From TrEMBL:
Its main location: membrane. It is found in: Endomembrane system. Residues 34-70 form the DUF1232 domain. InterPro entries: DUF1232. It is a multi-pass membrane protein. Pfam families: DUF1232. Keywords: Membrane, Transmembrane, Transmembrane helix. The chain crosses the membrane at residues 32-53, 65-83, 103-125. This is DUF1232 domain-containing protein. Coiled coil: none annotated.
């Protein structure tokens, strides 16, 4: 199997796992710590805005290539196998209908970037503060 096909299969598996986490954090049988980790991972993955925008060279893709897969892996390890197995079938159905958007996290990231810009502005232009 070529490297490109391996990467494509890995990406499809990660996408499916996000939906499994989405369903698992809503499941009452999921332990609290696993729910918290799953909520954070799902919220970030479904957010229309990244913490580090993709247009920033190299750093913009680090969250997508490293943080999200690590978060998915950690959350899946914290959730019991029988819950994951039950939610895999339902995840396939959700994937076909499109992922939900998490605008709350998107707005939170916009606020963080605005505060960051104001802070930088005050550092660069102390006379106007």
């Amino acid at each position: 199997m070529s490297t490109l096909n391996q990467l494509r299969n890995y990406a499809q598996k990660l996408k499916k796992d996000i939906f499994v986490l989405y369903l698992s954090y809503k499941d009452s049988r999921t332990p609290l710590v696993a729910k918290i980790v799953a909520i954070c991972v799902v919220a970030y993955a479904f957010s229309p805005i990244d913490l580090i925008p993709d247009f920033i060279p190299i750093l913009g893709y680090l969250d997508d290539l490293i943080l999200v897969p690590l978060g998915i892996s950690l959350a899946l390890k914290l959730i019991p196998d029988y819950i994951i197995d039950e939610n895999r079938t339902m995840a396939e159905h959700i994937q076909k209908n499109g992922k939900p958007k998490n605008w709350f996290v998107g707005i939170l990231f916009i606020i963080i970037w605005i505060l960051f810009a104001v802070w930088i502005g005050k550092l660069l232009f102390p006379l106007f503060s």
